[in-house]
Every structure is written in C-alpha cells, then in structure tokens.
Amino acid sequence: MAGIAGMLFLLTGIIRIPVQAEETSGEPENLYARSAVLMDADSGRVLFGKEEQVVRPMASTTKIMTCILALEEMEEGETGTVSANAAGQPKVRLGVKEGEEYRLEDLLYALMLESYNDSAVVIAESLSGSVEEFADQMNEKAREIGCRDTHFITPNGLDAEDAEGVHATTAEDLALILRYCIRESPEKEAFLAVTQTRDYTFTDVSGKRSFSCQNHNAFLDMMEGALTGKTGFTADAGYCYVGALSQDDRTFIVALLGCGWPGHKNYKWEDTRKLMEYGLANYAYRKIGTDDMKAGQEDSLKIPVENGADPEDPYKRGTVVRASAKDPESFRLLMRKDEKVECRTEIPDALAAPVKRGDQVGKICFLLDGKEVGSCKLTARESVEAYDLGTVYHALFPEFLLGQ
C-alpha cells in the first residue's frame, strides 16, 4: 500500500446496510445426518451447518477427489494395468483382473457411476505409482482447496487408519471439495460430464471384456436443477452424500455424513431435499457496494500526511489527503432475507509523503456475520509532495518574480 507509514489500521466506523425485513422460513430441523452443510457454491459460504466441523468418515464421497485429480493429471488416452492389489479390492467392484489394461477415462465412469472400489485403485496406482503416493496428492489438493480437517488414506473411501488418523473429513470440507470440482478446477466441465452421465459402456483395452455402468445418484431425478453428486456407505461412515443443485442463477451444495445406517438408506435423500428447499426458499442475490455507504461518508475520509507539503501554505509542514473508493461497482452476494451487511472503513493512522493521486491508502470491507465477503480500494484523490527546501523554493519563486 503506497506511502503508508505503518501497517496498523484504524477502524473508522462500521455502518450497517439495511435490508428490508421479510419473513423467512425456519432453519432445517430434525435432520437425520450427524453432520450436514448447505453451502453457497459461488462464495463457499456455509449457509447452514449441523456439526459441520466434526471429523467423521466419508466413505465413497471420497471418490469426488479421486475423480478430479485424475481428470487434472491423466493424459488423453492414458491406460493403466491392473495390479494384484487393485484386483483384490472388496465389493463394490468392477471385477478387473490382474494384468488387464484399461483406459483411465473409462474407469472414471465406473468410479463415479457405480462407485467401484477396484477402479479407484487402478486409477491411483497408474497415476502415482501407489495408493500411498496418490493419497499424498489427495491431501495436498485438500489443503490447497482450504480443507482444514480432511485426511485421505485410500482413493475409494474404504474405512482405514494410519499413523496420522482415520480416513475422514468434515461436512464443511467435503462441500468445499465438491465446490472445487464444479467451480474452480480447470476440469470442472469434464467432472460434470462424467457425473451427469446416466449410462456408459466400455471394454478393456484388448476388447475381450465389456462392461456397462448406470448412474446411481438418485438426486439427479429428484429436483429441478440437480447438477451432480456422489453417494457413499461403509460400516463406520454410515450413509453419506454430497451433491449440488442450480436454480435461478443460484448454486447450492449439500454435504451429509453419518446419515443413517442399513434400513435407512433413503434418509440422505430426505435431508438433501430439505436443505436444498431451505436454500431455495430463503436465499437470493443482493447487490452490495459503496452506494450503500452513508451519504457523505467518503468526504470525511481525510488521512494525515506526515512531512507533506500543504499546497495552500508553502511554509506549512504536514497536510491531509482525501480518500475515495476505486472501482466502486456493486457485487452480488447470496443472502437470507433478514441478513444485514456491515460496511467497515480501514485507513492508516498516517501516510508518509510523497503520495500520488490514485495510490491505495486503505480499503472498504463488507462484512457478513463478522466475516469479510468483499472489499474495494480507497485511493488518494490528489497528490501530496514531500515538504523540503525544493518545495518551498518552487512555491515562492513565482512570488519573487512578480515582486521584481
């Protein structure tokens, strides 16, 4: 930040931006899932959470990470050879045999449509050399995405434990991973293409064996705008699900962990519908921007400039510079009807001369629930030269000539 004497900022005020109060539907109650999240896919903001940061096993929802890593790493037409480890994976499995060769792209459909455990291992070993190395890549990617409490051990989500803990995540982290898959990854379109496919057939490379896969994500037919999703189940994890829906330019992600055990397979669909309907009924985009600041607030943003030359008094050392918002266009934010945004101005105690017009001298932060959801720069509206003998000379020289 040009010309700032110190990094300590003064909070010059918090202004609440009023939002017309409207009746809202109550938050979802009586969810079956032990952990649940409803997330805004555009911002990554958690709109509703139930034990959303509690670490739990996530079963085959793991495979969304396996899929997106494979899409980002594999070469076009790349193949993989089945190892004894891959062929020995437990059900649910494709039934590959040691020594067979498969196109990795084909195995992604077996992975995501049928949730085959052996397909995941073939992919992992082919791309990284071993399941352990691939798991390291999964964990590295999770950290890049912003996951704080996720630990991958296997590419298929089978219950596992190592020296660092169990194979597990949180509902919030799981939602963030799916957000990456559909919003941020360079292969997001390919991810959606795979996970939205209803039926897929393929053969091994030799053409001797053929396979057919059907998509088991029932959510795709449950609600208008359903985008993608992945189910999961293990004895430790229970039924799990992560899915996304898009309607009216809004995209929501639901993540569920521990959503019932055998005998209650449909609990995850009930919870998913309840959370999605809550999001659709209560959240809409609103425009937020500097127009929402109090009238005249910017005019009051004057920052002292130490050792600055006062343009109106050449003998005076020290002056002020006015600050105003740069690029003050509004931005959109998905908000509940009764939520309010706060506008906070941050400026330094003082600036050091010289200051050029257009230099950033602070910022305006927009806060929701105490968290920053947007900002714009505050820039100097005029230049201020440093006070020195040269400044005084140039200011007085015209007067000297006029006096001759």
UniProtKB/TrEMBL annotation:
Pfam families: PBP5_C, Peptidase_S11. Pathway: Cell wall biogenesis; peptidoglycan biosynthesis. Its EC number is 3.4.16.4. Substrate binds at K230. Transmembrane segments: none annotated. Residues 321-385 form the Peptidase S11 D-Ala-D-Ala carboxypeptidase A C-terminal domain. One of its GO terms (biological process) is proteolysis. One of its GO terms (molecular function) is serine-type D-Ala-D-Ala carboxypeptidase activity. The active site is at S60 (acyl-ester intermediate), K63 (proton acceptor), S115. Gene3D superfamilies: D-Ala-D-Ala carboxypeptidase, C-terminal domain (2.60.410.10), DD-peptidase/beta-lactamase superfamily (3.40.710.10). It is an enzyme of class 3 (hydrolase). Residues 26-258 form the Peptidase S11 D-alanyl-D-alanine carboxypeptidase A N-terminal domain. Keywords: Carboxypeptidase, Cell shape, Cell wall biogenesis/degradation, Hydrolase, Peptidoglycan synthesis, Protease, Signal. It comes from the Bacteria. It catalyses: Preferential cleavage: (Ac)2-L-Lys-D-Ala-|-D-Ala. Also transpeptidation of peptidyl-alanyl moieties that are N-acyl substituents of D-alanine. Belongs to the peptidase S11 family. Removes C-terminal D-alanyl residues from sugar-peptide cell wall precursors. This is serine-type D-Ala-D-Ala carboxypeptidase.
